[in-house]
Each structure stands twice: as C-alpha cells, then as structure tokens.
Specification:
Blueprint: H1 3-32, H2 53-67, H3 80-85, H4 97-117, H5 122-134, H6 137-144, H7 149-167, H8 173-186, H9 191-208, H10 213-238, H11 244-252, H12 259-267, H13 271-274, H14 280-283, H15 287-300, H16 302-319
Helix pairs in contact: 1-4, 1-5, 1-6, 4-5, 4-7, 7-8, 7-9, 7-16, 8-9, 8-10, 9-16, 15-16
C-alpha cells in the first residue's frame, strides 16, 4: 500500500483536502502579513515581527545556535523552538516558515487521529479544526506568526493521539516518552500535559494488569532522546545556572488568589475593571461548547476523559499565571 493510500485510509478525502487548504491558508497569511520580514534586517524593518519581543528572541537564538554562538545573552527563551529553526537559517528572514507549516499540518493530522480514536469521524474532526482555527482571521494569523506555541500544539495533539491509541491497545511507549520529553523543551508549562498523559496511562495499565517494566524503560528511553542533548546544550550555554528566563518566570509565578474573578475577566468581560479589551469567549464563542464538552468527556471516560483532564489542568494553570491579565501578557 503506497503512502497516498495509507493517508486516504486513515484520514479520508475530506480531511486531506482540508489539510491542503490549511497549508495554502498558512502560506497566504504568512506572506500577506504586513509584519512579515523581508530580506533586509536593517533598521528599516525593525517594526516587523523580527523586531518584536518574543519573535526577536526566537530569531536571535536560532541564528546564534546555527553559528555555534553559545553566549547566554543570545538565548532568552527555552531552546526547543530555536533548535527547530536553526537548521533553516539559510532561509534568511524566514527560519521558522517551514517549522510552523509542518507543525500546523501535524497538529491538524494528530487532532484528526485523536478524534477518530474517540469515535468522531475524520470529516467532522477536520471541519472542527478548520472552523475553530480559520474562521476568525485574527486567530489564524497566530499560526502564521512565529510562536513556540505552534510546534507545542503539534506535540500536544500527537501526544494525546498516541495516548488514546495506547488506551485502545496500540501501545507505542517509546514514542510516548519521546513526545512527553520534547514538550517542555518547547514550552515548560506545557509539560503538565505530558505528565497527565503519562500518569493517566500508567494508572490505566495498572488497573488492567498491563503495566510492565519494559514499557516503563521504553518511555524513559524515549524521553531521554530529546532531554539529554537539551540538557547538554543548556550546560554549554548557562552552565549549572538557570537561564534569566527561568529566574524571571519564577519571580512572576502563579496564584490562586481571586481565581473566579480572574476567570471572569479573562473569559467574559474585562472592561468593568480595565476599561478596554474583550473576553476570550466573546472572540471565541464556541468555547462554551468546549466547557460543556469537558463535563461530557469526563463522564464518558477513556481518552475523552484524558483530554478533559488535560484541558481542566491546562486552563486552571494559565488562569493562575500572575501576568495573564489585561494589563500584562493578555494584551
């Protein structure tokens, strides 16, 4: 069976066409964005995203890694995203173009695989992904702009798809460990998803009597593949010291103080206190269906309940993040 037949079998024609549409939209939005950098990286282009805070850090780190420059001053954020972009430095101002395109399509494919494993058809899953990602142009622009959230989203959905397969008997412990180990190297807070998946699977295997040392060793070996080289690179750049980003994040921290009020401000209405902005639900009203779906998924059990647990933990974690307010990161 050739590759095309395999994809058609797993995803179906509607999902394949949806993936093609997604790729075309990404390319269009990327190059049509007025903030996309040109080939000139001089002062004339500082207003473009290569001069933005986060994107500037990504670009400098990727170029420094490719040049072998391990000066800690050139590496602010966790190194995972920069490592992915470094080999594409030959693309000039667009080292993350292919990285994000591949990650977007991978997130789409993994979303469909996960959906299939909880009984949702490929066509419906493709439609859900396209509508929630593409219907709002402001939302889809975030896929085109270089953010470390794009490959992190791909790894999260791949991890969930592999975990769902494991619960159904399609056991791939090495791949499970590989994905769980890679995720926090892109975004440390996203490691909570990997932790939940690994614990969930271990408990499920323990209940069914399928927990084995062999699988545990394979998970550990898989996690070691990305983690050990990353640690070696961290030591080469920062030594035994935490990076400045780690120190800053520790200072900002998390809080459960006024959690209900924070949820109301971020999700529903911030203007009563901050006189500007809009709640997330106002922009993405379909999240209301998601909140209802979490309750249904918890009752259903299995991989659907795993997804619900990840959503609850992930959402709560970000609601507790001190800087996620309309006067801070929220803008």
């Amino acid at each position: 069976m050739n590759r095309r037949a395999v994809f058609a079998r797993w995803f179906g024609a509607p999902a394949l066409w949806g993936g093609a549409l997604l790729a075309v939209l990404y390319i269009w939005f990327y190059f049509a964005d007025p903030a996309a950098p040109g080939d000139d990286l001089g002062l004339c282009c500082i207003q473009r995203w290569i001069g933005w805070g986060d994107q500037g850090f990504y670009y400098r780190s990727a170029r420094a890694l490719w040049a072998g420059d391990l000066d800690p001053g050139r590496h602010w954020y966790p190194l995972g995203y920069s490592i992915l972009g470094a080999p594409f430095s030959f693309l000039g101002s667009h080292p993350f173009f292919l990285v994000d395109l591949i990650a977007l399509v991978a997130a789409y494919a993994a979303f469909i695989l996960f959906a299939r494993r909880i009984g949702v058809s490929s066509a419906i899953a493709a439609l859900l992904f396209l509508l929630t990602s593409c219907a709002d142009t402001l939302v889809f622009e975030q896929w085109a702009i270089p953010w470390n959230t794009t490959p992190a989203a791909a790894v999260i959905w791949m991890l969930l798809a592999v975990s769902a397969g494991h619960l159904r008997g399609d056991r791939r412990p090495f791949l499970l460990g590989l994905l769980a180990g890679a995720l926090p190297l892109l975004r440390p807070t996203d490691g909570i998803v990997g932790g939940i998946c690994l614990v969930w699977i271990a408990v499920a295997d323990l209940r069914t009597g399928r927990l084995s040392w062999r699988d545990a060793l394979l998970v550990t070996a898989g996690a070691a593949v990305p983690v050990l080289p990353y640690l070696a690179l961290h030591l080469a750049i920062y030594g035994l010291n935490p990076s400045q980003y780690m120190l800053n994040s520790r200072l900002i921290g998390f809080t459960v103080h006024n959690l209900v009020w924070r949820a109301y401000v971020l999700l529903i209405e911030p203007r009563q206190w901050f006189f500007a902005g809009q709640g997330l639900i106002r922009r993405m009203y379909w999240l209301l269906l998601g909140f209802a779906g979490v309750l249904w998924a918890l009752r259903r059990g299995g991989a659907a309940a795993l997804l619900a647990a990840c959503l609850i933990a992930y959402g709560t974690l970000f609601l507790c993040y001190v800087d996620l307010m309309p006067t801070g990161l929220w803008t």
